[in-house]
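[Automated response] Your request has been received and processed.

Submitted sequence:
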Amino acid sequence: MFWVLLLLTAWAGVLTSCTLLLRAAAVASVPAPAPPDGGAGARYRAGELNLYEAAYLAGGPRRVAELTLLSMQRGRRLLLAHTGWATVVDPVGRDPHERSVLGAFGPDGQAPVVAVRVAAARDEAVRILADRLAA
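Generated structure:
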C-alpha cells in the first residue's frame, strides 16, 4: 500500500514538470518585438555594440550572415530545413542585412543555406558594417 503513495507523488512531479515545460515553450514561441525603425541598432549609443556588430567581431562576415538567417527564422520569416535548404516566408526585409539575405534567394524564394550564407556575407551591408567598426 505504501507504493501507491509513492506513485501518486511521482505523478504529481511529472504533471508539475510538464506544466512548467509547456509554459516555457509557450513563452519561447512568442517572437521578440522589432525595434521601432526595424533595424538592429535602433537605440544606438556611443560605445555600445548592436547585435550585428558583436556578431562581426565574434566571427566576421559569416557570423553576421548566420545571425541574420537565425533571427529571420526565429521571427518566422524564413524556414530553415534540416535538409540544408531555406525558404522565404515573408519577403520583406527589416534592415539592410535582412534585405541582403532575401536578395541572395533570387526569384524562387528557395535556395541552399550555404549559398545564401556566402552571398549574404559578401554583401555591401556587411562591408559597411566592417567599415563602421574600423572607423
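Summary generated for your ticket: The chain has two domains: 1-29, 51-134. The chain is about 60% helix and 5% strand.
If you did not submit this request, please reply to this message.
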